[in-house]
Amino acid sequence: MFNCSLIILIIIVSIISADNPSDLGKCQQEDLLLADCLEPHQNYIETSLFDVSGREISSSTFMRKFTNFTKSFATCIGTDLICDTARHYKFFVDGLTYIGENLYDPKVFKCLERISPKLQDCLNTVPLSFRNLRKYQSYTSDQKKLMNCVIERMKDDQVCKNRKIIDSVEKSLNATRLIIRNYKRFRRGIMEPIVFSESLLSGIEVMKKKKI
Ligand SMILES: *[C@@H]1O[C@H](CO)[C@@H](O)[C@H](O)[C@H]1NC(C)=O
Ligand SMILES: *[C@@H]1O[C@H](CO)[C@@H](O)[C@H](O)[C@H]1NC(C)=O
């Protein structure tokens, strides 16, 4: 379920790195800032992010490093941004950092490692086609049912039942949806600049079936 999102995230990063900082334009300074902030990570990007397959998502070592990278990039960019491009990137790296810090917290990750059978089990109760499951940038009522089912199973598991852990997982999934939805808008050039914040995560609207 997460694989695809990791790949999208890496694509975002590589798009940023491929940006030509010497392009002229009114937002040139912010473009330069982005490039400057990536510069110290060039080696990491080229060696570690170059050929990711998506499986890395289940490696907490890889993901903690990745989160370290997104966090230090986000911090370097700062909050004082005017132009859409920089503000979009800031949104994405903040979002990724949020997900990384939540999901790869050692306690949460221990629980995540046990989630697969729960998900399988829930998929027997909530019949969702794989195709629908992957449309997780939207949030259908079936997905909500599935999520609630997984949460119930987590509550029965000693490693997972902690309220904070369940919350972290749910918020991270909501954050993933928010990022992917905006990433689609971003690619189509219709994304509104927004600041990533935890308060956005409870307001992910549930989409009606077939309306994406
Ligand atoms: C994260 O980055 C800091 C400095 O930027 C470094 O000291 C630390 O070892 C890094 N942690 C990981 C897990 O890579
Ligand atoms: C995740 O989004 C759903 C749908 O909007 C919402 O009902 C739920 O409260 C959110 N979860 C958290 C932990 O914010």
TrEMBL record:
Protein name: DUF19 domain-containing protein
Native organism taxonomy: Eukaryota, Metazoa, Ecdysozoa, Nematoda, Chromadorea
Keywords tagged on the record: Signal
Signal peptide interval: 1-18
Keyword match Signal: yes
Organism: Caenorhabditis nigoni
